[in-house]
Design goal:
It is built from seven helices and seven strands, in the order E-E-E-H-E-H-E-H-H-H-E-E-H-H. The chain has 210 residues and is α/β, with parallel strands linked by helices. It has one domain: Nucleotidyltransferase, domain 5. Strands 3-2-1-4-5 form a five-stranded mixed beta sheet, sandwiched between helices. Strand 4, helix 2 and strand 5 form a beta-alpha-beta unit.
Length: 210
Amino acid sequence: MIDKLVHQHRILGIDPGTLFMGWAILDSEGQKVKIVDFDFLDVHKLEDQYARLQQEFFFLQKLIDDYHPTELAIETQFVDKNPQTMIKIVHAQGVAIAAALSRDLPINEYSPMKIKMAITGNGHSTKQQVASMLQRFLHIQDDKMPKKLDATDALAIAYCHFLQLGLPITGEGTAKDWTTYAKRKGLTDKGLTTPNARLLAALATANKKK
């Protein structure tokens, strides 16, 4: 039996960075989602890296206080050939997590590949491809698209978390991902190549069985 309770969430998505930090707020109610706001914080003019981290920390605390999200979704497991770059990104991740913890916000971590898979169905897609898919999914007008991809990256992280919240309960338990669920429902041979398409088809199938 499908749970008919509607769960409301306000998701704060964070794309951690040392010079630019993307952020996004999504509201979800059941399988409906809408953008509340999204943008990026520019700290690149601050020369001291610790001053940048401090500004990010205080900015996130204020963002949480202003928007009252119910949970944080953040990109982690960043890999770069330059060890110094990795260290700086990890610092930014830690600051974002610390800000969320200071406000008792539940934390959800997603790898870059998982985020890209959730949005485009391809774990190696480009930032531009992710932004283009989000614009279609969320009906974002051209003039509302941000100048920096850090903002759409944060939106992708929040949307990825939204999709995870919507993973259905099946007779075999909660599916670990939409690919697994699609296979169980026999949706894989119907040309449904993206998680979003599988989501809509799976929901339609489930509604018919109510």
